[in-house]
Amino acid sequence: MKRKPVFAALAAAVVLAAGGGVAAASLGGDGGTSAASGTGTGATTHERAGLAGTGADDTAREDRDDARDDRDSDDRDDDTRQGAGRDDAARHDDTDDDQDDDARERAHDAAEHKAEAAAARKLAAPDALAAALAHTPGRALSAEIDDDQDGRLVWEVEILDGSGKLRHVDVSPSSGKVLGARTERGDADDVRAAKDLLTGDATSAAKAARAAAAKGTVVSIDLEEERNGYWSVETGPAEAEWSVALDGAKVTQGSDD
Question: Which residues face 180 on adjacent strands?
Answer without folding.
Answer: 170
